Amino acid sequence: MTLTATRRAQALERLENLGLDGLLITASENRRYLSGFTGSSGWLFLSRDRVALVTDGRYWAQAESQCPDVELVHFRSNEDLRLSRRLAAWLAEKGWSGTLGFEGEDLTVAAFRQAQEDLQEAQGPVKAMEPVSGLVELIRQIKSPDEIEAVRRAAWVADEAWKAALPTFQEGVTEADFCAELEYRLARCGARKPSFDTIVASGPNGAYPHAGVTDRPIQPGELVTVDFGALVDGYCSDITRTIWLGHLDERSLEILEVVRRAHRAGMETIRPGLRGCEVDQVAREVIVRAGFGPAFSHSLGHGVGLAVHEGPGLRPESKTLLEAGMTVTVEPGIYVPGVGGCRVEDLVVLTETGAESLSRSPYQEPGQVHPLEAWT
Ligand code: ZN
Ligand code: ZN
Fold first, then answer.
1. What is the pLDDT of residues 282-317, one digit of tens each?
2. What distance in angstroms lies between residue 172's CA and the mean position of ligand 2's atoms?
3. pLDDT at 1
4. How far is the CA of 199 from the centre of ligand 2 (A)?
5. Is 110 helix (H, G, I), strand (E, B) or coil?
6. Separation of 345 CA from ligand 2 center, angstroms?
7. Residue 237 CA, ligand 2 centroid: distance in Å
8. CA dihedral 31, 37, 43, 48 (to 10 degrees)
9. Residue 239 alpha carbon to ligand 2 centre in Å
């Protein structure tokens, strides 16, 4: 059995437990995970006795080579008009009929209504369409050894790019310029593209956890939060370092020290057998006790894989039991409006006995006047 066939068998088992006969996969990461097809358009249909990819002429040759064990349904936009019409015709041709699950978090309301019209109404092959949530995502949480290696490569590329970009981190460089340099280095080091929009948040902009970049020139003495990642072989990495030039004032040093302590607590705690909420709590407590509780306004971490944000979540309400093979971030932060912010994020893989950090870039320490000093 191929790797993708094994995954499809797992998905089918979950599908049948829900009392559904077929599953329509529209989310690109799930389509890739279950079929191996990396193209950007197409619907995957899955049932006990059939698996088919409906896609257009741009991808036929690619689909044939990437997923030889998946039936290819040729969609011609000039004749078929919509994927759902082509799928309906194919299902009718094959005599398939049943209840179809679809990815409620991915299919737009407009596409769902059209699919319903094509597949269900006027004696269509589908009896009913039911939204499912997280069916494939739950399987994706635990990575195979090959997937862990891919995430490890993506983390390595981010570390290399970071080191290569740091010499340009100098007084007066704008957030946008430093971002451009970092993204260029990511590409040169082997990333297909950044795994998400890079964040470079300097001084007061650091108070916004997901700030983006501006044309603000970076000044000595202010905290600069840089959150970035690489996409390599379809897999993501995600890392944050908070850096500065020169010397920090007492307030910034305090924020930095508390975040670093919370991060250490999270990294030392995380292991299989704990629940997501338990790891979040250990790190969060450090920040709460230091009096910054309300300033840590997000969860401690998230899974990383084909998507940069996936399960499991490390957050106060997460009951998910952590298991070996999961790849997750640990990323506490403090954000003070008008002052600035700080976040430290590493990506770890859970092993049988604990966790291994895949992020290797060192942290700038108090007293160091440039982040490159941390490397020596
Ligand atoms: Zn991040
Ligand atoms: Zn993250």
1. 999 999 999 999 999 999 999 999 999 999 999 999
2. 27
3. 85
4. 11
5. helix
6. 7
7. 9
8. -70
9. 7
